[in-house]
Specification:
single chain, alpha/beta, eight-stranded mixed β-sheet, seven-stranded mixed β-sheet, about 30% helix, globular
Length: about 550
């Protein structure tokens, strides 16, 4: 065993996990790395060191190092440094840019899949992929800090492994490859291009991605045409803190439970850089906290990531929940779909979404880390947290707030002052301007109505949330005037058999609140199924 060195990239706890995972490796995997010291340092050094350390963990990872401009680079059409090819004699898989942060996890998973031939695609997706007859080039734009990117990248790499003669997967890091990002007008991640045409912003369900591979155009999720039926006591929709907690309590009560999540596990918390108000942790990354919750929940219940609910029908005392993969027949449904970022609703916002307009600093801030100028719009905890994160990674950030004081907690307000983050008070954004990417915003002073144009490279919107209530509306449950689901003290909705917890119900949008509500809701589901309160006792 290679002795641990102080400057190793892969820490000992991660090495232990990788040793265990890499014990499953079957065929040797070649990692062909191209670097050029004149371009993209220190990312080249990082990539060389990472590949070397992976090879030290297992003899089945075989590193090969080449420079740009030679015959090998020409053979594989490699022109950028660093570029990493995975098992190049068999597959068309490349990482353009150093696979750091979240993408290091993607690389480790890719090594496993390339070695064993076992991908993350479902059997239905593999079967559907056999219909592909034409070559497809898939570009996934990513950043090291994006929690959604690994799942999207893994789908593309899985497709390249399943159809090695037809699918090319390129995982492109946007900060190191700004020239490519600029060419495709990309400043947020993940973004999916197929044959150089944009087909998706953000993480896409497996089924949608496979259909896009077949058609090379964007698609809308629809009910599965295959997959059969599955009977459950409880279907939980949403895998944020509320959904995961409910799964633990429901399964421990003996209920047959499944959690359906159309995106990735963790919800809004997974993109929160730092959580400082959750009991038991004085300071923890949101993604880490959600990983810990997910691991506990997975021990009790099935959690289906990337599975979208597209229809629900009530039949007698049961519900039929149709998803992009199958149909569930269930006695109860617990809605934990949370909330999403509220939009500004100004000219240019939707036009430049993904091109400078963002709702997630952890996902997209990395692109602006070399001193680019951005604004954060908002005055609450989220806006303050986003601004502090951006400042700490090297972004030139200013807050724009419509009032004369922030609503954020005192601790966060003090942190903003300590970090000398300026605030433009009593002002609103009236328009976002640009050409291919954002170049400026029009700001109006609320006091005198005057406007000015402020040059910026990006706009991060953090003005609160709106409930993800589409499914709730379809089910006909009661809501308040803002669209939040109304529940009683036991978290029953106005429709018998439907329950709700977490941010979807409004009130205090805190992790601790969501998990408390979910525990009550799951316990209520168990009690109502065991002893229906609506039936007269005889």
């Amino acid at each position: 065993m290679t002795k641990k060195k102080k400057d190793d990239l892969i820490q000992e706890d991660s090495r232990k996990i990788l040793r265990s995972d890499f014990a499953q490796l079957a065929d040797p995997v070649t990692l062909l790395l191209f670097t050029d010291d004149a371009e993209n340092e220190p990312f080249n050094a990082f990539a060389r060191k990472l590949v070397t350390e992976l090879a030290e963990i297992t003899g089945k990872v075989r590193p090969v190092f080449e420079g740009l401009g030679g015959t090998v680079a020409s053979k594989h059409d490699v022109t950028r440094s660093p570029t990493l090819l995975l098992q190049p004699d068999r597959y068309r898989i490349r990482f353009v840019g150093a696979p750091a942060g979240e993408e290091a996890r993607t690389l480790a998973l890719s090594i496993l899949m390339a070695s064993t031939g076992k991908t993350i695609l479902s059997d239905q997706a593999k079967e559907r992929l056999t219909a592909l007859k034409e070559p497809r080039n898939v570009k996934i734009f990513v950043s090291p800090t994006c929690p959604y990117c690994p799942q999207q990248a893994a789908l593309a790499i899985s497709a390249a492994i399943e159809r090695p003669g037809l699918v090319t997967a390129e995982i492109i890091e946007i900060f190191e490859n700004k020239e490519i990002a600029s060419r495709f007008n990309v400043s947020s991640v993940p973004q999916v291009f197929i044959d150089d045409h944009l087909v998706g912003l953000g993480l896409q369900p497996e089924e949608a991605f496979i259909e896009e591979l077949l058609t090379a155009v964007p698609v809308t999720p629809r009910p599965a045409e295959y997959g059969g039926r599955s009977e459950k006591d409880l279907v939980i929709v949403g895998a944020g803190p509320a959904g995961l907690t409910a799964a633990i309590y429901a399964a421990r009560s003996g209920l047959g439970t499944v959690v359906l999540e159309k995106a990735n596990i963790g919800g809004q918390v997974s993109i929160t850089p730092v959580v400082e108000n959750y009991p038991g942790f004085s300071r923890i990354a949101g993604r880490t906290l959600m990983d810990m919750m997910a691991q506990q929940a997975i021990a009790y219940s099935d959690i289906h990531e990337g599975e979208d609910v597209v229809d629900v029908v009530k039949k007698d005392s049961l519900f039929e929940v149709s998803t992009t993969r199958t149909t569930y027949v269930t006695k109860a449904i617990l809605l934990a779909t949370g909330a999403e970022s509220r939009k500004l609703g100004v000219p240019g916002e939707m036009q430049f979404q993904g091109r400078g307009v963002s709702y997630c600093a952890a996902c997209d801030g990395y692109f602006f880390k070399d001193g680019k100028k951005v604004i954060v719009v908002g005055g609450g905890n989220t806006a303050a947290t986003e601004a502090l994160y951006l400042k700490n990674i090297g972004v030139d950030v200013t807050i724009v707030h419509r009032r004369d004081q922030l609503r954020a907690e005192k601790y966060l307000r003090q942190s903003l002052e300590n970090n000398k983050i300026p605030v433009i008070w009593n002002s609103t954004v009236k328009e976002i301007r640009g050409e291919k990417l954002v170049t400026a915003v029009v700001i109006e002073n609320a006091a005198d109505g005057t406007t000015r144009t402020m040059p910026v490279n990006g706009v991060f919107v953090a003005i609160g949330y709106v409930p993800n209530n589409e499914l709730a509306r379809k089910l006909g449950v009661g809501m308040d005037k803002e669209g939040y689901v109304t529940v009683d003290e036991r978290h029953r909705t106005t429709v018998r058999g439907i329950y709700a917890a977490g941010d979807l119900t409004g009130g205090e949008k805190q992790i601790v609140t969501a998990v408390g509500q979910a525990a009550v809701a799951a316990t209520t589901v168990f009690e109502d199924i065991a002893n229906p309160y609506w039936k007269e006792k005889t």
